[in-house]
Design a protein that fits this description.
- The protein is α/β, with parallel strands linked by helices.
- 38% of the residues lie in helices and 21% in strands.
- The strands form four sheets. An eight-stranded mixed β-sheet has the order 16-15-17-18-19-14-1-20.
- α3 packs parallel to α5, α4 packs antiparallel against α5 and α6 crosses α7.
- It is elongated.
- The N terminus is likely disordered.
Length: 473
């Protein structure tokens, strides 16, 4: 009787190693957790190309082992044949059992190898999940002098505009934001900023100053648009620079500089840089007022110094756009915190809602709003940082609508609070530390609200949560 004909060549070699394989089977069965193989589909995306090849190899081995087990069972269950009633059935059935044991040992070895591969992939999946949970966390760099930060950020913003095919880039003003309101810097500071931009622009000649730029209501009342004296008939694909310094109070030496650009027609952000800055006192000299219109920058020879402006009493009859005199620093002091500038921003989005919103077939343009936060200085700071990390680390489309409404509303009445399709609303989180805020997405059309998560500020010497952050570039 030919054994090769009965059991097949694929099993003969396995039979030779039956004893050691059986021992290995017992040892592996006692130490290896095979449950991960039931979840393998969840980890396939984390396999390397080499591991994918190994998985295919072991899957083929398992298929052959399953075939051999079926063949062994057929032999072990064989009944005497009428054609050969004297056939040694005991020997055939014994060989069938040996085939099953050998194939099961091979099967176990292949499964054990697969477990090792998928355990490695599981670690990668866990690391990816941790990274995703920290995706929007940012660590603020050490503050640098305003002039240095301006030059570095302006170069990046202009390059981003050029990369996006914006050939016309408008520079209007440098704004100081205090307590949520914007005031224009002096003509000297405006000219210094323009000189630096022209230097960086070089021979492209893409940067220009619009004359008498203002925000106007479109014909028929269908939205708002910018208008200026030298505007071309076809001004599409023109960018307007967004430059603001957020300070806790007038006279403060430190602030948060935001340098960006928005599409003049849609108000969508096309570039954005945020940096902590020092040495901003010069920006307060000869402050201009935006009280008459959002575009008209009237320099007053009698403008008091920054210290006098900060100390002046508030007036109930003052225009709405007048620079607020209450210092946000007082609220910080009341909390026992001496720092205006946070060291990091920690964003929690447990359901990955931001990515889901960015992947919608018809994407929304979101305007970050923090008007529900009672302290306007805190609101401006958290809104600026959240907008910064979303611009850098997500695919959401963001609107500069808040900046437009605060800086250019002028004499316009009944302006909407939002110039975009949807809002990312920041609110105080009553169940969290003072500097933690919850935020959600709100559709402007349907008013449907989707909760996203929280945004918390961490300050020097404090530890809101042990985390890993990404430094702002």
């Amino acid at each position: 009787m030919n054994i090769f004909r009965i059991v097949g060549p694929s099993i003969i070699l396995a039979l030779l190693f039956q004893a050691p394989l059986a021992a290995a089977k017992k040892s592996a069965a006692e130490t290896v957790d095979f449950s991960i193989l039931e979840q393998r589909a969840a980890f396939n995306a984390y396999l390397t190309m080499s591991e994918r090849g190994e998985v295919l190899k072991y899957e083929r081995i398992l298929e052959q082992a399953a075939s051999d087990i079926r063949a062994g069972r057929h032999l072990s269950e064989r009944q005497p044949s009428k054609l050969d009633p004297h056939e040694n059935m005991a020997a055939i059935r014994a060989r069938g059992k040996e085939m099953i044991e050998a194939a099961e040992a091979v099967q176990l070895e292949a499964q054990t190898s697969l477990v090792a591969i998928y355990e490695t992939a599981k670690v990668r999946a866990s690391e990816a999940a941790i990274a995703a949970s920290r995706k929007y966390n940012i660590e603020l760099p050490v503050p640098v002098d305003y002039d240095e930060a301006f030059a570095a950020s302006a170069g990046k913003v202009l390059q981003s505009c050029w990369d996006a095919d914006y050939e016309d880039i408008l520079f209007d003003q440098v704004f100081i934001q205090v307590n949520g309101a914007h005031v224009a810097a002096s003509s000297a500071q405006r000219n210094a900023a323009y000189d630096k931009l022209i230097e960086l622009d070089g021979t492209r000649f893409s940067v220009s100053v619009p004359q008498d730029i203002e925000l106007v209501q479109k014909d028929g009342g269908a939205g708002y648009a910018f208008k200026y004296a030298d505007q071309a008939e076809n001004s599409k694909h023109t960018a307007l620079l967004v430059i603001e310094i957020i300070v806790p109070e007038l006279g403060s030496d430190q602030g948060l500089m935001r340098m960006g650009a928005m599409d003049l027609e849609t108000f969508e952000l096309v570039a954005n840089q945020v940096l902590p800055v020092n040495a901003v006192q010069d920006l307060y000299e000869g402050l201009q007022s935006t009280a008459s219109t959002g575009a008209e920058m009237v320099e007053s020879a009698e403008t008091p110094s920054a210290e006098k402006v900060a100390e002046a009493p508030s007036s109930e009859s003052a225009p709405e756009t007048e620079v607020p005199v209450e210092a946000t620093g007082s609220a910080i002091a009341e909390s026992g915190r001496t720092h205006f500038m946070p060291s990091s921003l920690l964003v929690s989005d447990p359901q990955h809602t931001i990515d889901r919103l960015a992947a919608l077939p018809t994407p929304y343009v979101f305007q970050v709003e923090a008007g529900a936060i009672t302290d306007a200085g805190r609101a401006a700071r958290i809104a600026c940082l959240l907008e910064s990390t979303l611009f850098d680390n997500s695919k959401l489309k963001l609107s500069a609508g808040s900046f437009v409404l605060s800086s250019y509303k002028g004499d316009l009445e009944n302006l909407p609070k939002v110039l975009s399709d949807a809002i990312l609303m920041l609110e105080e989180d009553g169940n969290a530390p003072l500097e933690s805020y919850k935020f959600s997405a709100i559709s402007k059309a349907s008013q449907r609200t989707i909760e996203i998560g929280t945004a918390a500020l961490e300050f020097p010497g404090e530890n809101v949560a042990e985390t890993q952050t990404t430094e702002i570039k």
